[in-house]
Amino acid sequence: MIYKMKSRNLGILLLSALFALTGCSSKSDAPAPSAQQKTVVPTVCVYTLGKVRNDLQRAMMDSLRAHYPKCRLAGHLPLPDSALTTKRNDHRRYRADLLNKVLVRYKSDTTIVVGLTQADIGLDNFRGRPHSGIMGLANGIGTGVAVFSSYRPRGNGQLFSVMLHELGHAQGLRHCPDTKCMMQNANGGNPFSKTNVFCEKCKKFMASKHWRL
Fold first, then answer.
1. In this structure, is residue 16 part of a structural domain?
2. 3-state SS track over the chain
3. The whole model's pTM is what?
């Protein structure tokens, strides 16, 4: 009787062990996510819009490469007459929102698309006026597309700050209430003449997007 009970208990133990092994093996057989699947670093692709000086292109690309791991000068695009504002006649000024619509065509899941131009850019029906000149514009928060212009910023340092500001929007940042942060709302002015840094909160966000700032 004791022998039979021992045999029965042994059988139960063996079945339990076999079940446990089968369960573990099914989990271990599932492929672990690779590092590439976990972290995909998008490439910042810079397109020039219209005539852009070579030295300006080099300066912006050098600054980008110093702060971001993947970026390239992707090509040249003409400035379309269809993007000209009809609400200013003093000089040729392009609507930034329509330029972004051109850039969206070159956006993919693994890229961030930026347009660099020397032309004056602006927005119709903005800030209570028929047309307002601006320094840059993201296509929307987190859309990965933006355009910026060298027409208004003073020098390459301010221009790069404009680029970072619009890239912040393009990657998900909204305007920051901190007046010492470069993500603040310009409100028609030029905050980049006073600050060229992110606040700690915005800097942490940009670091999560692979920026070294």
1. no
2. CHHHHHHHHHHHHHHHHHHHHHHHHHHHCCCCCCHHHHCCCCEEEEEEECCCCHHHHHHHHHHHHHHCCCEEEEEEECCCHHHECCCCCCCCEEEHHHHHHHHHCCCCCCEEEEEEECCEEEEEEECCEEEEEECEEECCCCCCEEEEECCCCCHHHHHHHHHHHHHHHHCCCCCCCCCCCCCCCCCCCCHHHCCCCCCHHHHHHHHHCCCCC
3. 0.81
**Torsion angle defined by CA atoms of residues 114, 119, 124 and 130, in that order, rounded to the nearest 10 degrees:** 160
Taking only the tens place, the pLDDT of each residue in 50-81 is 999 999 999 999 999 999 999 999 999 999 99
In a domain, 174, yes or no: yes
CATH no. for residue 166?
Answer: 3.40.390.10
Domain membership of residue 158 as a residue range: 41-208
Domain count, the chain: 1
**24 assigned to some structural domain:** no
Angle (CA) 142-145-146 rounded to 5° is 110
In a domain, 18, yes or no: no
